[in-house]
Amino acid sequence: MKESVAIIEYLQSLENIENQAGMKRFAIGNNNTLGVSMPVLRTLAKEYKKNPARHEIAMELWKSNIHEAMILASMLAIPQRFTANEMDAWTHVFYSWDLCDQVCGNLFQKTNYFIEKAFEYSHATEPFVKRTGFVLMVQYTVHHKKADDALCLQFLDRIEAEAWDNRNFVKKALNWCLRQIGKRNAYLHPIALACAYRIRQQGSAAARWIASGAIKELESEAVLKRLKLA
User: Fold this and answer.
1) What is the CB neighbour count within 10 angstroms for residue 27?
2) CA-to-CA distance for 108 and 211, rounded, in angstroms?
3) Hey, which of 35, 37, 121, 137 would disulfide with 19, CB 3.0 to 4.6 Å?
4) Mean per-residue pLDDT for 135-142?
């Protein structure tokens, strides 16, 4: 498709070696970055949002194996046309935390089946598949505020069950999810905080790390004031 080729050529023309080095330091990409900034990708996405072939363009961009093109693909793909099998396929390609998080926020959490996938992926062995599960829980907690809090209680059960996992990008997702649930509203705050204290008592290094950061933030004056708990 001419549009996808033109987009890739444009992205390649913006290659920035200095930005590439900075991205590598933050574990962004997999030696496949161009160093193109997120504002540039968002501008491109806005330009192509009304293109009737945007979904097909997105699917071709994903296959490019160019980091920024793959993120752009998640901005252009149409959630209603994106299948559960495609979500599985994309998730198993994830190789860095930022690709995982961007795709979850831009696309996955807008599908009708992302909750069932969140639970499914949270049991996975592969680190980035497992991270995807918990990042999708974060997306629900943060961006679906009018939705039922009951699911967040189930998320806490999954966090508590997986808090032994010391892999960096998994435990960071668990900590992130725990903190966001505790900050969602005054009802969930004490439940999430109690969960954090139980996790800390598990004794593993991962559990202590996950819990300590969450407890510190959830007991902070700023969070308590925002939730009108202080």
Assistant:
1) 13
2) 27
3) 35
4) 98
